[in-house]
Amino acid sequence: MRHCGTQSIETERLILRRFTLDDAQAMYKNWASDPDVTKFLTWPAHSGINVSKFVLGEWVSLYTEKNYYQWAIVLKEHGNDPIGSISAVHMDEAVDMVHIGYCLGKEWWHRGIMSEALKAVMDFFFDNVGANRIESRHDPRNPHSGMVMKKCGMKYEGTLRASDWNNQGICDACWYALLKSERQIPGFDNKK
Fold first, then answer.
1. Can you tell me the distance from the alpha carbon of 190 to that of 192, in angstroms, rounded to the nearest whole number?
2. How far apart, in Å, are the Cα atoms of 149 and each of 51, 62, 64, 94, 179?
3. Half-sphere exposure of 71 (CA within 13 A, CB side)
4. Looking at residues 35-48, what average pLDDT do you find?
5. Angle subtended by helix axes 113-124 and 143-151, to nearest 10
6. Buried b (16+ CB within 10 A) or exposed e, 54-92
7. What is the pLDDT, as a whole number, of residue 184?
8. Quick one: the chain helix, strand, coil %, rounded to 5?
9. With contact defined as beta carbons under 8 Å apart, do 124 and 105 qualify?
10. Helix H or strand E encompassing 27
């Protein structure tokens, strides 16, 4: 893959940008401290703003790496404060694969925002980085995450039983992926 690091991406409603240390308050308030947001994730809700500051410190320091991809999701109508994050949580250079993870503040659920962000990030990885396979997974008890993947053209590949873990404990994992050769997404509508 041709790594280029986290670049700003703009869509109709969103700006996907690098995090800064100044985003700690918004991160903590908008999603990281909410146990409903982190329920099916692998990290616990932040217990205080110092946790958010620490996490952002790690993320910001990694932006010097060309193969590091971590975006703040900013809704244009909401100013410059991030409302969630989307990132490459794993990559396999041998098969040009990128695994994407994401989370969004509860106030912005069910508005097509994450689908819009995921679609833009997928396009970035296919067009700019040269990914051949983009994949993601979700706990079947969190079906809305799978709906985001399907809306962006990912194909369901199967459920691996008791193969993953999150804040609920050991769980099944529903896997989705899209290959570069399959990337025509008929009927994609990010406003739903």
1. 6
2. 29, 27, 29, 23, 13
3. 28
4. 97
5. 50
6. ebbeebeeeeeeeebbbbbbbbeebeebbbbbbbbeebe
7. 67
8. 35, 30, 35
9. no
10. helix 24-27
Query: Mind listing the pLDDT tens digit for each residue in 127-160?
Result: 999 999 999 999 999 999 999 999 999 999 999 9
> For residue range 81-114, what is the model confidence (pLDDT) as tens digits?
999 999 999 999 999 999 999 999 999 999 999 9
Q: Report residue 14 CA to chain centroid gap.
A: 14
pLDDT at 183: 84
Identify the pLDDT of residue 188.
Answer: 44
pTM more than 0.90: yes
**Residue 53 buriedness (CB in 10 A; 0-12 / 13-18 / 19+):** middle
The rounded mean pLDDT for the chain is 95
pLDDT at 187 over 90: no
E strands in 39-184: 70-75, 82-92, 97-104, 133-138, 155-166, 169-179
Give the CA-trace dihedral at 142, 75, 69, 24, to 10 degrees.
-90
Cross-sheet strand order for the sheet of 155-166: 9-10, 14-17, 70-75, 82-92, 97-104, 133-138, 169-179, 155-166
Contact of 134 with 126, CB cutoff 8 Å: yes
Q: Domain 9-182 sits in which CATH superfamily?
A: Gcn5-related N-acetyltransferase (GNAT) (3.40.630.30)
